[in-house]
Amino acid sequence: MKVTLPYISLSCLFFLLLSACQKEDEQPTGKPVLDNTPYVLEYGLLPAPNLPTDNLLTVQGVALGRMLFYETMLSKDGTQSCASCHRQSDGFSDTARFSIGVEGMPGKRQAMPVFNMAWHSNEFFWDGRAHLLRDQALRPIQDPLEMNETLDHVVAKLNNSSRYRDQFVRAFGSDEITPDKMALALEQFMLSIVSFQSKYDRYLAGEAMLTESELRGKLLFETEYNPFFPEFSGADCAHCHGGNNFENDQYMNNGLDSDAELTDLGREMVTQNANDRAKFKVPSLRNIALTAPYMHDGRFSTLEEVIDHYNAGIQLSATVNPTVANTQQTGLFLTNQDKQDLINFLKTLTDDVFLNNEAYQSPF
Predict the structure, then answer these.
(1) Would you put residue 228 in left (φ > 0), alpha (ψ -120 to 50) or beta?
(2) How far apart are CA 113 and CA 121, in angstroms?
(3) Where are any strands of DSSP class E within the chain?
(4) CB-based contacts of 189: which residues, under 8 Å, 6+ apart?
(5) pLDDT at 84 over 50
(6) Is residue 11 predicted with pLDDT exceeding 80?
(7) H/E element holding 61?
(8) Distance CA 330, CA 233 (A)
(9) pLDDT of residue 30
(10) Pick from 91, 112, 116, 122: nearest CA to 41
(11) What is this structure's pTM?
(12) pLDDT for 144-155, tens place per residue?
């Protein structure tokens, strides 16, 4: 049987093929221009963040910051980027106790996770030495123990890339590359990294159920320590890790060392105030199951070790937080089942959507 095809002129066929090729291979044409399209930040049930008014998030600014976050040209030998020590798969933290820099030397403290930075209002780094996120952004580049590069060299390297010059135009309206613009772009990208879709968040939204063990762990997490009625005493975690972001924007001494054993002065090194000795920034517990090792010096490898510290390992010192110090004599009365339930609850704070969000992955 003969099939008759519809008649199509050669000119029409050529036009259709040309259109298809243009759609498939379409590339931006012309010179780049400033694009101030706002970046829409999603944060679910978290409270509205207090974003910087002098560095409003834009689509192109966040895109530039993302490029820089994954850019190895920021390091002296071109082998490391911000993402080398803040990997998305590990909750934007480092599984090494101390990150190893380009010169093969370890850092002095454990790499803090980078997410929900928009909800941190008490400065940055473990000791708070960076007032704003933009101030924090450039320090690892210049640190001899980390990327060990000069900002002048970084600018020179980026200036050799038309891709970067064009992106600076889109983000800031000029192809002039400066450290200040780099810092603002990195701040925008890091502010855009938000974790708010864990199992616990779905539970709060009525979209998921917690197991009996997870619910009991939640109760232990929220219940205060009670030395007079041990059967009603809890793990008292919410005192320091409260609210939807599971932190309190404070610097605290959580009883890791006695005065004689202190080797890191923490916040005191910034404030020069002896009352801040051995105090460190309280981190968020979101994605905590992924961000081992724990504490400013990474001394604990597991959540079990962390809980054992609070349950029976508190060391007294001059600046230890009173809430923590109060438990030193008796511990938290946690049984093995209590500990397991508490860990099961903490695991509900893992956000798989955040861990696999393409918007946070390398653009290269």
Answers:
(1) alpha
(2) 16
(3) 251-252, 280-281
(4) 62, 64, 65, 66, 68, 69
(5) yes
(6) no
(7) helix 59-69
(8) 11
(9) 77
(10) 116
(11) 0.90
(12) 999 999 999 999
The separation between CA 220 and the C-alpha centre of its own chain, rounded to angstroms, equals 26
| Sequence-distant contacts of 212-217: CB under 8 A, at least 24 apart | 213/340, 213/341, 213/344, 213/345, 214/341, 214/344, 214/345, 214/347, 214/348, 215/345, 216/341, 216/345, 217/341, 217/342, 217/343, 217/344, 217/345, 217/346
CA 137 to mean position of chain CA atoms: 12
- The Cα–Cα gap between 70 and 85 comes to 11
- The CA-based diameter of the chain, rounded to the nearest angstrom, is 97
Which amino acid is it at 50? N
Helix axes 151-159, 179-192, angle to 10 degrees: 90
**How does DSSP classify residue 89?**
G
Residue 216 structure tokens = 């009991």
CA distances from 335 to 171, 188, 215, 325 (A): 55, 44, 16, 20
Burial (CB < 10 A; 0-12, 13-18, 19+), residue 58, is buried
Q: How many residues would you count in the chain?
A: 364
CA distance 363 to 37: 19
Helices and strands: H and E segment counts in the chain = 14, 2
Task: Find tokens 């975690």 and name the residue.
Answer: 237
Contact at 8 Å (CB) between 321 and 254? yes
Which amino acid is located at 52 in the chain?
Answer: P
How far is it, in rounded angstroms, from Cα 111 to Cα 131?
Answer: 18
Phi (first) and psi of residue 112, to 5 degrees: -75, 145
